[in-house]
Amino acid sequence: MMESRIKELARKRNAVILVHNYQPPQIQDIADFCGDSLELSIRASETSADVIVFCGVHFMAETASIVCPDKTVLLPRTEAGCPMADMITPPSLKAMLEELGKLPVVTYVNSPASVKALSTVCCTSANAVKVVNSLEEKELLMTPDRNLASYTEAHTDKKIHKWAGCCPIHDALRAEDIEKARQKHPDAEVMAHPECRPEVTETADVVLSTSGMLKHARQSDRSSFIVATENGLIYPLKKNCPDKSFFPASETMMRMWPNALKIWLPKSRSLLISSKKRWTP
Ligand code: CIZ
Questions:
Q1: Of 144, 147, 141, which Cα lies nearest the Cα of 85?
Q2: Are the C-beta atoms of 268 and 27 separated by less than 8 Å?
Q3: Distance, CA of 189 to CA of 186 (rounded, Å)
Q4: Measured between alpha carbons, how far is residue 86 from residues 94, 109, 118, 224 in Å?
């Protein structure tokens, strides 16, 4: 079986397989760890693995490489990118800072490492408000997600200049999609990701990162949830809470990043075989 062959190859090469929460079920099932991008990199740093196979997109593999500088990081599909991360580059950031003047820059983890290197501090969707409030300055620039920046601005008294990027999948969701989902599932609690537009986060019952949604669903007394993030998260939610119900906020819009779906089992297997030389002493 392909799955057991991959696990065996990973074991032989002392590799840890990290799988992002949005990946398809078949990929999540071969994971040593599933989670959000930063959480996965931190967990990998706590292992003695020599190699990380990161089933995710570019910026996640880069994060793993920053957090685990001594490990070799492999991305099963090098063309698997994040559209939002591609909406900012170091020259475009420098140009904006020339226009705005010297401001601290808070950059979301979903960004290229080259942009993180030019930033004052980085944040996740879970800690953005805390990170912004930790700055002494009253005015700052947040990149690259304008929606996360708007959500943060609503929870701080600082002036936030917003980079114009967004996740096209989350940004496509509208308040009326939430309204329709509520009509279909009136008892369900709405959990929305802060990458959604303000019209969606304002109408949601709770606004959480992917790991936050997994934790909240486990701890909540509620038994059904409308999930306003990429539909890939429905699988780990159901796996974590088999006795609860999870409904996508929109069946049609919230499909996973097409590029992230490029990761599939045969590719992970051939990667473990073909890159053997890179980690055999
Ligand atoms: O940082 C991550 O892994 C992403 C893409 C979102 C989240 O909320 O976990």
A1: 144
A2: yes
A3: 8
A4: 16, 13, 16, 35
CA-212 nearest atom, ligand 1: 8
Task: Check if 124 has its Cβ closer than 6 Å to any atom of ligand 1.
Answer: yes
The mean pLDDT of 62-85, rounded to a whole number, is 92
Ligand 1 pocket member 209 (CB < 6 A)? yes
Domains and CATH numbers, the chain: 2-80+263-274 (3.40.50.10800), 85-166 (3.40.50.10800), 170-256 (3.40.50.10800)
Q: How confident is the model at residue 242 (pLDDT cuts 50, 70, 90)?
A: very high
Residue 213 has pLDDT above 80, yes or no: yes
What is the pTM for the complete model shown?
0.90
- Residue 109 near ligand 1, beta carbon < 6 Å: yes
DSSP character at residue 72: E
